């Protein structure tokens, strides 16, 4: 059984934060051999929500963060432990982050920058490529956007 969590940074205890950041650095810096400043300061923003899933032994299996960019929400730092890939835990985190984003900012798009090879995975959640490909730290990416769902009111009588 997996446990799903989300909280702003101020509500995350130090050991949990360490495990979240350890997974992100393990995936983005070590595994992908991309020497860049993974800790960019955005986790400290007051509206940032961290999402993660743990195994029964408290191992962090996947994590992501949800940012408020003002005119849009932004999902980023989606990282999954190699042992949990293909198990659906990151997909569930995405669903939860999208749901929270939609509740908080129903009229805002959700944006992300996807590594090109996983863009089809993000498309499953309603994201579409929204601009030209670019390279970040030697890794090809594409900007993607999930537009807000149209809200229709009652028809005028």
Q: Would you mind describing this structure in some detail?
A:
- The protein has 157 residues and is of the alpha+beta class.
- It has a single domain (3-146), classed as Aminopeptidase.
- Helices cover 25% and strands 32% of the residues.
- It has 3 helices and 8 strands.
- Strands 1, 2, 3, 4, 5, 6, 7 and 8 form an 8-stranded mixed sheet that branches.
- The mean pLDDT is 92.
Mind sketching the topology for me?
Blueprint (H helix, E strand, L loop, with lengths): L2 E6 L5 H18 L17 E6 L5 E9 L3 E9 L8 H16 L4 E7 L3 H5 L4 E2 L4 E3 L2 E8 L11
Shape: globular
Overall CATH architecture: 3-Layer(aba) Sandwich
Order of helices and strands: EHEEEHEHEEE
What is the alpha-carbon Rg in Å?
16 Å
How would you classify the quaternary structure? single chain
Question: Average pLDDT across residues?
Answer: 92
Briefly, what CATH class?
Alpha Beta
* Number of helices, where a helix is a run of at least 4 consecutive DSSP H or I residues: 3
Estimate the helix proportion, in percent. Answer: 10-25%
Q: Class by helix and strand content?
A: alpha+beta
Beta content comes to 25-35%
Biggest pleated sheet: 8 strands, mixed
Query: What is the number of beta strands?
Result: 8
CATH superfamily (homologous) name:
Gcn5-related N-acetyltransferase (GNAT)
Number of domains: 1
End-to-end distance, in Å? Answer: 51 Å
Within the CATH hierarchy, at the fold level, what is the topology? Aminopeptidase
């Amino acid at each position: 059984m997996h446990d799903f969590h989300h909280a702003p940074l101020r509500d995350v205890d130090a050991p949990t934060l360490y495990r979240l950041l350890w997974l992100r650095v393990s995936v983005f810096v070590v595994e992908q051999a991309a020497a860049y400043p993974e800790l960019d300061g955005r986790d400290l923003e007051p509206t940032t929500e961290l999402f993660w899933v743990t195994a029964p032994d408290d191992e962090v299996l996947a994590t992501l963060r949800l940012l408020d960019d003002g005119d849009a929400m932004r999902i980023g730092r989606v990282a999954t432990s190699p042992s949990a890939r293909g198990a659906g835990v990151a997909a569930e985190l995405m669903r939860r982050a999208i749901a929270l984003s939609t509740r908080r900012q129903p009229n805002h798009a959700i944006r992300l920058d996807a590594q090109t090879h996983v863009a089809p995975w993000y498309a499953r959640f309603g994201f579409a490529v929204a601009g030209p490909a670019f390279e970040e730290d030697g890794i090809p990416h594409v900007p993607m956007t999930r537009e807000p769902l149209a809200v229709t009111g009652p028809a005028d009588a």
